[in-house]
Design goal:
Helix content is 76%, strand content 0%. Helix 3 runs antiparallel to helix 4, helix 4 runs antiparallel to helix 5 and helix 6 packs across helix 7. The chain is mainly alpha-helical. The protein folds into 2 domains: 100 residues, no CATH class; 71 residues, no CATH class. It is built from 8 helices and no strands. It holds the Pfam family CbiQ. It is a multi-pass membrane protein. It is found in: Membrane.
């Protein structure tokens, strides 16, 4: 659900990574301090407006993100409908989709180098007690960036499986996906070591 960096430039690309992260944290905290459906819907509407202003590429990304959330939305709707609390379900759904889409916007408009520097700056005070700031500053952005890569590989293997077999035992994809992820991790580790490691 987290989108890769978007090559389509927007004004948000020029904003400092720290300011965008601070805004995301403030929005996340604010959404959990209210259960007013009107306020939550207004926050979601603002999200849609921002994506629309940023351009068609961003808007398509938001729609894809929302599509991936449909199973969760359906489950929450069914559960809260059965328990007689539709308002509670609406609060959860609005919070979830707003935060996921805003988080996706953050990763789309923030370069990997900016993320690394941001994490390192935030963790700098812990360096005095031996905390591996360099490793953390590299691990978190890499994890974020590899999520869409892993999702794309899963879809590719799923399509290959459906083209070759009528069986629905998709659990068999687990092992090749695990091996592919380990192979990618090994390649990235080799590349990092070749460039001097996390603390050159």
């Amino acid at each position: 659900m987290i989108s890769p960096f978007s090559p389509v430039e927007s004004r948000a690309h020029e904003w400092p990574a720290f300011s965008k992260l601070l805004a995301l944290c403030a929005l996340s905290t604010g959404l959990f301090f209210t259960d007013n459906v009107t306020v939550l819907f207004a926050a979601f509407a603002c999200t849609a407006l921002v994506y629309g202003i940023a351009g068609p590429a961003f808007l398509r990304t938001a729609l894809v993100t929302l599509r991936t959330l449909l199973p969760v939305v359906a489950l929450v709707t069914i559960w809260h409908g059965a328990t007689g609390d539709p308002r509670g379900g609406a609060v959860i759904i609005l919070r979830m989709i707003t935060l996921v889409v805003w988080a996706s916007a953050f990763t789309m408009t923030t370069r990997l180098g900016e993320m690394v520097e941001l994490v390192r700056s935030c963790a700098k005070p812990f360096e005095r007690i031996g905390f591996p700031v360099g490793s953390l500053g590299l691990a978190i952005p890499l994890t974020i960036r590899f999520i869409p890569v892993f999702i794309a590989r899963t879809r590719s293997m799923d399509e290959a499986w459906r083209a070759r077999s009528e069986s629905r035992r998709k659990w068999r994809l687990f092992l090749p996906l695990l091996l592919a992820a380990m192979d990618d991790a090994d390649d990235v580790a080799e590349a990092i070591r070749a460039r001097g490691g996390t603390n050159p």
